[in-house]
Design brief:
single chain; about 325 residues; alpha+beta; Phosphorylase Kinase, domain 1; 2 domains; 10 strands; transferase; transferase activity; Kinase-like_dom_sf; Aminoglycoside phosphotransferase; Aminoglycoside_PTrfase
Length: about 325
């Protein structure tokens, strides 16, 4: 049996979890391997599972129901949950655990660095929205409404509170411009508020980071982790997707327009304003300051590259957004 842990002294906790699982599961666990916090790979003689922890029973049951609904509506490129415990739910160390299908990964990892992957991810996200549009009425009482502008105001406020630390690393001229971009973005979104409040409603994924797309061994692409689902217009997921891929495209609005799914959104003034919000920069600074890792050279380097290293490219991008938004106003 392999219970080796490489995550900083959690051997005892993991052995306790293993002992609990051996008592609760109808099969013998041959290996337990941590993937990230409260997520484990379990191997038995017959198969493998993913064990994932949730903070509440409600969250666990919502995820089980939602992934089942996706499958029933024809969206098969995700995982399913299994009922495997003798007395569900699994509850250990104040955490509810669900047992999920393990999808064997390909050696070809999904990455936003490749244009073919970026296009494929967009297509899968569109299929997800087409499916979840049918599920909105079913989940509107248990899935929150997504408030794009409110979320970004909160993120900007936290960034402002963190400025004493940020100023230690970033010159004031860059900080002032970041804040100006955020102000222009939020004001434009307020003027075009209906864009994010009316029209087509879907269940948003909420976290379209590259690691939530999985290239399976058969080369199919899967969408994972629905912890942040919310109801809103598709704009919000596409905004986040655009923000994730733009660093790999040298922040080119022209190249962004070459993606058919995004091209139509670039014709909307509110979407252009929203693209200007430096949400990734604010998010990463807020994270390293919250985790107190800003003095770690390895942790701070990518944040500085995002903030300073890409600044000139991003400055040109914002100028292009403003020109495009101005044209839409005429």
């Amino acid at each position: 049996m392999n219970t080796t842990v490489n995550n900083g002294g959690d051997d005892l906790a993991q052995n306790r979890l293993l002992s609990y699982l051996q008592d609760q599961l109808p099969f013998k666990v041959e290996e337990i391997k941590p993937i990230r916090k409260k997520v484990y790979l379990l191997r038995t003689q017959e198969r493998a599972f993913i064990l994932k922890g949730f903070s509440s029973y409600h969250r666990l049951k919502l995820q089980e129901a939602f992934t089942s609904s996706l499958m029933n509506e024809g969206f098969e490129k995700t995982y399913i949950f299994y009922e495997v415990a003798k007395e569900p739910p699994l509850f250990f160390d104040r955490t509810y655990f669900g047992c999920m299908e393990y999808i064997p990964p390909s050696e070809d990892v999904f990455t936003y660095y490749l244009k073919t992957n970026r296009l494929e991810g967009l297509e899968l996200l569109k299929k997800f929205h087409d499916t979840t549009e049918k599920l909105v009425s079913r989940y509107q009482t248990v899935v929150p409404a997504y408030r794009q502008a409110d979320k970004w105001r909160e993120r900007a406020t936290l960034f402002l509170n963190n400025l004493p630390v940020v100023r230690y690393f970033v010159q004031k001229e860059i900080i002032n411009e970041l804040l100006a971009w955020a102000d222009w973005s939020l004001k434009g979104m307020e003027e075009e508020a209906l864009l994010f409040q009316s029209g087509r409603q879907v269940i948003l994924h909420g976290d379209v980071a590259h690691h939530n797309f999985l290239r399976a061994k058969d080369q199919s692409l899967y969408l994972l982790d629905f912890d942040l689902v919310a109801i809103g217009t598709p704009h919000s997921d596409y905004l986040q997707y655009a923000n994730r891929i733009l660093p790999f495209m040298k922040w080119s609005i022209d190249d962004l327009g070459k993606y058919p799914i995004l091209k139509s959104y670039l014709g909307e003034r509110g979407f252009l304003h929203a693209l200007a919000f430096p949400t990734d920069i604010f998010r990463e600074w807020n994270r390293v300051i919250r985790d107190r890792t800003y003095l770690d050279p390895v942790k701070i380097r990518p944040v500085l590259d995002l903030t300073v290293g890409q600044f000139a490219e991003r400055q040109r991008f914002i100028k292009a957004l403003k020109n495009a938004a101005s044209e839409k106003s005429k």
